[in-house]
Amino acid sequence: MRFDVLTIFPELLQSFSECSLIGRAQRKELLTLCTTDLREFATDKHHTVDDEPYGGGGGMVMKAQPWIEAVRAVTELHPSPPHRILLTPQGQTLCEAKVRELANHERLLLLCGRYEAIDERVAELVVDEEISIGDYVLSGGELPAMVLIEAVSRQIPGVVGFNDSVVNDSFRKGLLDYPHYTRPEEVEGLVVPPVLRSGDHAKIDRWRQQQAESATREKRPDLWQRWQGRQR
Ligand SMILES: C[S@@+](CC[C@H](N)C(=O)[O-])C[C@H]1O[C@@H](n2cnc3c(N)ncnc32)[C@H](O)[C@@H]1O
Q: Would residue 115 be called left, alpha or beta, if left means φ above 0 and alpha means ψ between -120 and 50 degrees?
């Protein structure tokens, strides 16, 4: 899978691209992450990508022309046409189902905004879908892009070391994950549940399922209600 990111701060994605899960996945050629600096598509000598808003008011608006040209140029960098996503607080909120749907695309092109807004015509002309990472406003789309890339990458076989850990992750089956423990057996008086040291795998599976259900019931009543509805 290939991710292209358009931003005025490509350096924000540099260590993200080189380290940990994404860096390892790129070295294993399971995915490619390319960033392009939007300023390369500005036409003036100062590489200006913003201007004052029509109608007045505070904040600067990102100009349409650099975005449109950049999206078209980045599209040409690879033969598979990208699914073009604008990161914006006004988009559909990212969730597990959407992450899995996006993982089916061969290529995603992510547009990271800055300032007050992007000229509305960009969304109309060169965007397929708008996505938000939650009902709050950040200063730029780079963190949302990294959130999306990491979540989608986890769905690519081989990216996460033990595939089991993705299968049992929270939300995957509609429940939260069960509790996990590692050595030592006791920490400040809190002891690992004896069932986990019993060696009885059927018993351990039952315990984990019960724990996942009670965690979901207590921490996320909304998910719990949905889960119960699906069991009927
Ligand atoms: C300061 S925000 C602009 C917010 C805009 N004035 C509004 O209220 O809808 C600048 C950029 O950050 C990104 N951004 C901010 N919050 C976001 C969120 N919750 N999800 C996705 N992108 C976000 C978008 O790319 C946006 O263009």
A: left
